Amino acid sequence: MVLILMAGVSAQAQKPKHTFRLGTSDFLLDGQPFQIISGEIHPARIPAEYWRHRIQMAKAMGCNTISAYIFWNFHESEEGVYDFSTGNHNLSQFFKIVQEEGMWLILRPGPYVCAEWELGGIPPYLLRIPDIKLRCLDPRYMAAAEKYISRLSEEIKPYLITKGGPILMLQIENEYGSFGNDKNYLMRLKEVWASLGIDIPTFTGDGPSTKMLEAGTLPGSAVGLDSGSSLEDFALAAKMNPGVPVFSSETYPGWLTHWGEKWAKPDSANLLNEVKFLMDNKKSFNFYVIHGGTNFGYTAGANSGGKGYEPDVTSYDYDAPVNEQGKATPKYMAIRTLIGSYLPKGKKLSPIPDPVPTFEISPVNMQPFTAIWDNLPLPLISERPKTFEAYGQNYGFILYKIELVGQKNGKLTVNDIHDYATVFLNGTYIGKLDRREGINSIEIPASNEEVPVLEIFVEAMGRINYGKNIIDRKGITDSVTLNGSTLLNWKVYKLPMDRKYVYDLRSSGKSIKKPGVFFKGNFILTRAEGNVGADTFIDLTNYTKGIVWINGHNLGRYWNIGPQKRLYCPAPWLREGLNEIMVFDLHQTEAKWITGTKTQE
Q1: Where are the domains of the chain?
Q2: Backbone dihedral region for residue 516 (phi beyond 0: left; psi -120 to 50: alpha; all else: beta)
Q3: Dihedral sign of CA atoms 121, 122, 127, 133 in order
């Protein structure tokens, strides 16, 4: 008989300590076969104030386990600079809440995770090393990865099941069979965790093909399938890596969306058939994702498939059972009904928690506040333009400026622009460059100026998070030519648009005509109106492309090519009384109204 620990039954309440190990074909909890029914959520994509609510939503849908990616670059933003304590960086608090809610936990700590997250979770400071190789035994990469793993293990160790905590199992890397074939690299990562006292079972996760499983599995580690949807998939995995359990480590209820696409909305009928197969055959599985959350700030990643560069939208709604704002969808209710039908007689799923309320914001009268051009730092002098990473900058924007001597008009080519740029001649906007559309050249018109001034204002969008092109440096990554002649002797202005930069902005105090404008507006929340403690979605339909902040919190990128026009703003980032909206738009110089809505669409 397979033990199914359903939501509402707390294993922690039965005994102070449990055991979890790998059988030859089953996961064994306290010596008995255990079916993992997991829902994936990512602490970094959810405000910490909402962690408990989202975990309770997973529990009420029928999950007994939470699976969580940990993003290395979210916790080590610069070399040796760690944050495991503030806001949604506080992993120990997340682990505690999982246990308090009577749930188990699977950790997926990287060092690489993919997850449609910037650089797959690897910190971009490593890209400052010109010839570095990632996801292999390159000693520079491994030294950084092992240092991170050592620090992370301090957060993890007190919450292992062997210490009375909720953490059952840990993933070694992620979908490595889709990337490489260096088993020595995978074995080294496994050895590092063990040497640090992480004494719980491990697993790998790969697509259900012979090539991927051969390159990505490890002896003695459970096999995760992304996804496992047939008996043939499970049989193949058991053949490729015998003697350990096999489970579906990523069962997909939804899918990701890139800028310029329609929202991904996969058919739920196929999903329900897959879940029924897994339940009927008592196979363990993990919904990737049960709740996606949001790519706040500069955290959204990108793909580089057959269509070229494909940056991800800010929302990570994923068409998941629990939507971006935390509400149960029809898909959620259907899965809950299906899983609930397998409960032992007399058992019920825990109730669905109340949703977080939402509210509308009446049109906010925005005003031009200042321009990037009036808030430039001192420039660096650079013979050739270099990447963001070469200048020690991870995210945001860089302005490359040059006086044209000799060649003064004609075809300007910015070889391999990463990722989007507005181009100016003598302060006048003349066009854009866009990696996504393969646009890397523009015609420079003749000028009356004796020494024309060219400015290329480059935005770094998400770094590629999957496949062979993950070394994705930003800015001008090659050379700039005018009619084939290389342009040299640049002034470079670093504009990270981080919290400090935005806080330090000063008003222009004059009419702003040149694109690259910050707009500002205010709205008031009062308890009498019932909007304190409620979420909203900031509607950027009237703007073109840029970033929006609420009370200094970066909600992420917007872009009028869609499909996303509204950015999620959680209640913890709002306050009773006066609230400030700041918008930086790459193209607009005229202020337009902004509203807040109750839904994303």
Answers
A1: 11-299+310-340, 361-367+513-597, 376-495
A2: left
A3: negative
SS (H, E, C) 292-303: CCECCCCCECEE
- 454-489 pLDDT per residue, tens: 999 999 999 999 999 999 999 999 999 999 999 999
Determine whether 175 is an active site residue.
Answer: yes
Annotated catalytic, 310?
A: no
Q: Hey, do 11-299+310-340 and 361-367+513-597 end up sharing a CATH topology, with the first three levels equal?
A: no
Considering 101, 250, 389, 459, which one is annotated as catalytic? 250
pTM equals 0.95
d(CA 587, CA 446) in angstroms, rounded, equals 23
Angle of helix 139-156 versus helix 91-100 axis, rounded to 10: 40
Query: pLDDT tens-digit profile of 525-573?
Result: 998 888 899 999 999 999 999 999 999 999 999 999 999 999 999 999 9
Q: What are phi and psi of 98, to 5 degrees?
A: -55, -45
CATH architecture under which domain 11-299+310-340 falls: Alpha-Beta Barrel (3.20)
Q: What is the largest CA-CA distance in the chain?
A: 86
Domain covering 376-495: architecture: Sandwich (2.60)
Contacts of 131 (CB under 8 A, 6+ apart): none
Q: Which of 175, 324, 455, 459 is an active site residue?
A: 175
